[in-house]
Design goal:
The longest helix has 31 residues, at 263-293. Strands 3-5-4 form a 3-stranded antiparallel beta sheet. Strands 1-2 form a two-stranded antiparallel ribbon. A two-stranded antiparallel ribbon has the order 6-7. α5 (147-164) packs across α10 (263-293), α8 packs antiparallel against α9 and α10 (263-293) crosses α11. The chain has helices spanning 37-45, 106-114, 117-124, 130-137, 147-164, 171-195, 206-210, 212-233, 236-257, 263-293, 297-324, 327-330, 336-339, 345-350, 356-362, 370-380, 383-402, 409-423; strands at 10-11, 23-24, 26-30, 49-54, 57-62, 77-81, 84-87, 199-200, 203-204. It contains 18 helices and 9 strands. With 426 residues, the protein is mainly α. 59% of the residues lie in helices and 8% in strands. It folds into 2 domains: 10-87, no CATH class; 106-423, Orthogonal Bundle (Farnesyl Diphosphate Synthase), CATH 1.10.600.10. The two termini are 33 Å apart. It catalyses: 7 isopentenyl diphosphate + (2E,6E)-farnesyl diphosphate = all-trans-decaprenyl diphosphate + 7 diphosphate; 6 isopentenyl diphosphate + (2E,6E)-farnesyl diphosphate = all-trans-nonaprenyl diphosphate + 6 diphosphate. GO terms for molecular function: all-trans-decaprenyl-diphosphate synthase activity; metal ion binding.
């Protein structure tokens, strides 16, 4: 058993980055790092990193611009081979992204704008057929996390404050939040049909209650209603941006149905699928509200990059929870991804220690015992911890982007949001 000490070396960055008062330049310091391939392996997947030596010690270094964000009381663990562990000390987030930043709960701050949003969605879904109405409104019961609409609403106000110091939100910006939630829900309905899922958010899926054919039609109807609401905004740029989301969702689903034979290409394939199926909607919705509230292209890019990085991190943690949460917490059966033949982040990381997984990935865990054996390999590896660490990297990149906006309660809430993503349990 060999231990690794994670140290957080903080220093003041200086006047060239006034929005950041604390940086982390070097982590993962060990007297002896017996397997250099671990550093090389992480370098290949985590941009902005480099291996270095200092006074006879190995270190994993990060530039100031790519410093890490760690939630409070979070632990990391590394393992380089079966039976050989690297144990990390507990990390603490040291310093805030802005000297005047307050701990703003994003969900509490966004509740005012979120009020009546599901009633407004149901108005967009007005139909005369009772059965279709019941199906379309089934998931809009107000019991979900509302993660996407809250994020989009906060981004709208943050961009408005950055541009003209006005916290008021335009009706068109609120419509984007509604449309984003409708597109997301339509994709869930279709995903449940494709995956043959029986439960979603702790209750039976639409396809289980009404059947697959009607479920497909319900998803199509929600998507068409979202398209009508999008056209009503009357901005061709916004229509183009959110139409890209629908294209990405379809392409992402096709990517998920396939797998790369080349082991070195699998993780890139996984991240591309993750962006298209999850992050594209968040990124493009954030970009859309920024365009409606601010003419500066730099702000549009900030909003897009924030949404992209938060979206990828969100899905990485979702994939981690499939191995760490019980069915009651998740509202759906765990190990669901393995049973669907999907190799997510934790599995791909585990392959480095258990190459036997590669064969199972290519046959999509279809043989008897594959799912159970793959589960054991992931649990015995550092796959979950590596995937969590990568999610932290993406979260920090999101924080670095949103910190470029002028201070506001909404901006500070968006800075706090990654901690919610990283520490969620369902």
């Amino acid at each position: 058993m060999a231990s690794v000490l994670w140290r957080c070396c903080c220093r003041s960055v200086g006047s060239h980055r006034p929005e950041i008062s604390c940086a982390r330049n070097r982590f993962l310091v060990s007297p002896v790092l017996e397997e250099r391939r671990q550093i090389q392996y992480l370098q290949s997947w985590v941009p902005g990193t480099r291996a270095c030596r200092s006074r006879g010690t190995e270190a994993f270094c990060f530039s100031t611009s790519s410093s890490l964000f760690f939630p409070k009381d979070y632990s990391l663990f590394w393992r380089t081979s079966p039976g050989f562990h690297y144990i990390a000390e507990r990390m603490y987030c040291c310093g805030k992204a802005h000297n005047n930043e307050k701990n703003v709960d994003p969900f509490k701050l966004g509740q005012k704008d979120l009020k009546n949003i599901y009633e407004d969605i149901k108005k967009e879904l007005f139909v005369s057929t009772d059965e279709l109405k019941d199906m379309c409104e089934y998931y809009f019961d107000g019991k979900g996390k509302a993660f996407r609409p809250i994020l989009v609403l906060l981004m709208a106000r943050a961009c408005n404050m950055h541009f003209n110091n006005c916290r008021e939100m335009f009706a068109s910006q609120r419509s984007i939040a509604i449309i984003a939630e409708m597109i997301h829900t339509a994709s869930l309905v279709h995903d449940d049909v494709i995956d043959g899922s029986d439960s979603r958010r702790g209750k039976s899926t639409i396809n289980r209650i009404w059947g697959e054919r009607k479920a497909v039609l319900a998803g199509d109807f929600i998507l068409s209603a979202a398209s009508v609401a999008l056209a009503r905004i009357g901005d061709t740029a916004i229509v183009s941006i959110l139409s890209q989301v629908i294209e990405d969702l379809v392409r992402g689903e096709f990517l998920q149905l396939g797998s790369k034979e080349n082991e070195n290409e699998r993780f890139a394939h996984y991240l591309e699928k993750t962006f298209k199926k999850t992050a594209s909607l968040i990124a493009n919705s954030c970009k859309a509200v920024s365009i409606l509230g601010c003419p500066d292209p730099k702000v549009h890019e900030i909003a897009y990059q924030y949404g992209k990085n938060i979206g990828i991190a969100f899905q990485l943690i979702d994939d981690v929870l499939d191995f760490t949460s019980c069915a009651d917490q998740m509202g759906k059966p765990t190990a669901a991804d393995l049973r669907l033949g999907l190799a997510t982040g934790p599995v791909l990381f585990a392959c480095q220690q258990f190459p036997e997984l590669n064969v199972m990935i290519m046959r999509r865990f279809c043989l008897p015992g594959d799912v159970e054996l793959a589960w054991q390999y992931v649990q015995q590896s550092d796959g979950v911890q590596q995937a969590t660490y990568l999610a932290q990297r993406y979260c920090h990149k999101a924080v670095a982007e949103i910190s470029k906006l002028h201070p506001s309660p909404e901006r500070d809430a968006l800075i706090q949001l990654p901690e919610t993503v990283l520490t969620r349990t369902k």
